[in-house]
Amino acid sequence: MSSVKIECVASEGCRIGESPVWDEKESALVFVDITGRKVCRWSPVTKQVQAIAVDAPVSSVALRKSGDYVITLGTRFAALKWKEQLVTTITQADKDKPNNRFNDGKVDPAGRYFAGTMAEEIRPAVLERHQGSLYTLFSDHSVVKHFDQVDISNGLDWSLDHKTFFYIDSLSYSVDAFDYDLQTGKIGNRRSMYKLEKEESIPDGMCIDTEGKLWVACYNGGRVIRLDPETGKRLQTVKLPVDKTTSCCFGGKDYSEMYVTSASDGMDKDWLSRQPQAGGIFKITGLGVKGVAPYPFAG
Ligand SMILES: O=C(O)[C@H](O)[C@@H](O)[C@H](O)[C@H](O)CO
Ligand SMILES: [Zn+2]
């Protein structure tokens, strides 16, 4: 634990960096800048970020079995062809809510794309409440709504045995668990697994490691925390040099490195001058634990 090392690998300065995903085929980290309206790809070899500009807030990106990516764009699920820089709509959600947009999303172990919505923020964490819903995009491109009344739909992942779905609605300050049916993609029996402490602030994106423990990025908390879903206890805290840590994933060789995205939206000049790396991408090594490869969307 003492050899934990944190490095800012891309300091381009996202407005809201989010949804980091390791793309093994490309040996690169894919992520989005939500309000910057960009899908980005960072190569550890060139140390450069390539970006594709899109026409709406892009809140998550996922791998696709057929190659390339799927994204949540505004209130749409869309396909993104990287080389061609081509975005095509798959389907739209929340048609009756023009002020909404998608937020975090992730593909389940069976290849279904889960993503939730929220009202557009007036400023960070300030928005019309209860406007969001959680959706699944199936491989046949049909969409199912699981529930509504969500404030800020955020981090999600599945337990190693695929029997539990973990989910964060940020303004509940809770990491929740559901029973998960991998056969059908249905969720049920919601309960709180962990309540954030005050200095941890707002729970945002999360990912699971190969020991079945959850890593949660704490927005305004400047940290990632490792939780034990069995006991509901926090096992570890890793602090970062920026407050607005938004999400995390494992990547790199054998998924032994952790990547953390961050945001700069909502910070004034003073705050930004104290944290010049705000909006950067961070690599954490020496955690002594590995992650699970991301699942590609099956459709
Ligand atoms: O990164 C996200 O998931 C949201 O889009 C952000 O806006 C923050 O989470 C939010 O401001 C804090 O709750
Ligand atoms: Zn988020």
TrEMBL record:
Broad enzyme group: hydrolase
The protein's required cofactors: Zn(2+); Ca(2+); Mg(2+); Mn(2+)
Domain SMP-30/Gluconolactonase/LRE-like region, first and last residues per copy: 16-264
Keyword NADP recorded: no
Record's keyword terms, sorted: Calcium, Cytoplasm, Hydrolase, Metal-binding, Zinc
Entry's cofactor comment: Binds 1 divalent metal cation per subunit.
Record-level GO BP terms: L-ascorbic acid biosynthetic process
A Pfam family annotated for this UniProt entry: SGL
Keyword Acetylation tagged: no
Catalytic activity: D-glucono-1,5-lactone + H2O = D-gluconate + H(+)
Sequence positions that bind substrate: R101, N103, E121
Subcellular localization(s) per the UniProt record: Cytoplasm
Alphabetized InterPro entries for the sequence: 6-blade_b-propeller_TolB-like, Regucalcin, SGL, SMP-30
Family per similarity comment: Belongs to the SMP-30/CGR1 family.
Entry protein name: Regucalcin
Organism: Buceros rhinoceros silvestris
